[in-house]
Every structure is written in C-alpha cells, then in structure tokens.
C-alpha cells in the first residue's frame, strides 16, 4: 500500500493488557500497516501497551494516540518516547493531547489553559528529543532545570497532537508532525482539520508533510444490517459521552445531537439518530461498502485510516474479515 494511504487497527482500551502482544502479532500477520493504542485512564498504560505491541512484532508501526500532556511531566514523556524510539527505530508514533477532561479532573491535573499546557509540553518534549544540551526553562505549567536525555533517540520520532478545535488543529501544524483525529470524525472534518494543520505549518514557516491518522468506528459483515446495528450502538455511546463538538459541527448536526442527549442520552440517540449518521460518522456494512468508505477517508486527506472494530468481543473475527474481504478490494 502506498505510504500515504495506510490502513491500521485501534486496539481499544478495554482490551486486557496481556492480550496486546497476540493481537499485535495478528494485525501484522494479516497485513495491516499500523497499530494504534490509546492511553484512556484508567485502563492499560499507553507506553507499556505500545512497548508490548512493538516487542511482539517486527515491521508494523505502532502509534500512541494519545497520552495526556499533564499526566506525565514532559521530561518523563520525552524519556519514554526516546526509549521506545531507540529500541524500535522507525516504528513508533507518539501522540500528545489534553486528555479527556473528566479523567484529568479525577487526578486533580486540569490546567487553567489546556492549550498553553499542551504547547509547553510538546515544545519541551521535542526540544529534549532533538537537543543533547541540558535544557532549563520556566513555563506556566512545566519547569526544566538542566534536563537532558541520557539515551536520546537515534532517529526522528514523529510527534502528533490529538486535538479537535480550530485553534488546536492550527497549533498541531505549528509544533507537531500531524494530528490524530478522534472517532466521530466524518470525511468533511478530516479535510477541515488537515487544512488547518497545513495553515499552522505555513504560519510557523515549516515545510514538509502533515499527517492526519484518523480513528473510525468500524463494523464489517456480509449481513449489512448486523454491521450497521453494531456501529449504531457505538455511535450512540460516543455521541452521548462527548456531546456536540467540532467533529459533528462540521456537518451541521450539533443541535440535533444536543436535543437527543437532553431527551434521554444514549437511548434517545440510539433510537433517534438518522440512518445517514451511520453513513457519515463510521465505516459499516458489507466489505464492498467498507472498502469504498476507507477510500473516501483517504481522498479526504486521512493518510492513515485507523479502524476501531465493533463490537469489541469479536475483535479477532473482525480483523480477519477486514483483512480477507476488505483489503483486497482497496486501490493500492
């Protein structure tokens, strides 16, 4: 598959950590290009999970999307990133974000200005990864005093943000190599976020490529109705959890999302969401339909489409079905 048209799998947070190595090996054996893990609090540790997946495989790239910028001091995050980058050169992709507000608040770490905290953290991480001289800086949220990595990476480790708003997407272009896009992102949002990232790059005088790996809720089945039912349930869960956001605002459904949440949350969303929401917010249906939808995401600018198989209890069967019946249908 072309380097700018990759297909990956998200190993969701409910996956028991002891199963990550076998699932990572399966993804590699089936021919996927990437594996992504998310550090959702308080499931499995993101860096630990990535290390397990990398150690269990030989060629596949493994991404972390994303770790909260306030859950670890940037010097500690840089140390973790550098260690994985050295141990598995060219295979680790690291994402940094705000973190889900509710989880961050549970730890008493919510910053007054999440955007400033994120920019400070990522700037410090990149500096430590690329500079061998000890660094001293005093920021609003993070302090470095003569900090240098003893084992810096031997090659570049891509740093992505994981943000959804206009300012965040522009910031990704200014300070990062890309932006990891959340589930619920329609193709319209992918194009919008990528254009903002490129604008941020231009503002910062940066050149090169800008990556937008995109997580997408996915269910594939020769029984079209069964696949759409599985995705519909997941969409209702996520829409109820996050509410109206720029992800759904870009296609003009935020008012209806808010109305359904107010009318009864998950159940109201499950019963009341229009069928076309399944079409635009997910990948679902037959292998032919799934392949066509993946190519739409690529065409919108998602260089890497990261499938999140639904339902979770049939992850292996979904992986095998996608590899056997969807991959051969894609234009490579």
UniProtKB/TrEMBL annotation:
Which keywords appear in this protein's UniProt record, sorted alphabetically?
Answer: Oxidoreductase
What SUPFAM superfamilies is this protein classified in?
A: Bacterial luciferase-like (SSF51679)
- Keyword Oxidoreductase assigned to the entry: answer is yes
The segment(s) forming the Luciferase-like domain are 15-303
This protein's source sits in the domain of life called Bacteria
Q: Does the keyword Iron apply?
A: no
Q: Which GO terms describe its molecular function?
A: oxidoreductase activity, acting on paired donors, with incorporation or reduction of molecular oxygen
InterPro entries recorded for this chain?
A: F420-G6PD/mer (IPR050564), Luciferase-like_dom (IPR011251), Luciferase-like_sf (IPR036661)
**What PANTHER family does the entry give?**
5,10-METHYLENETETRAHYDROMETHANOPTERIN REDUCTASE, PTHR43244
Question: What is this protein's name?
Answer: N5,N10-methylene tetrahydromethanopterin reductase
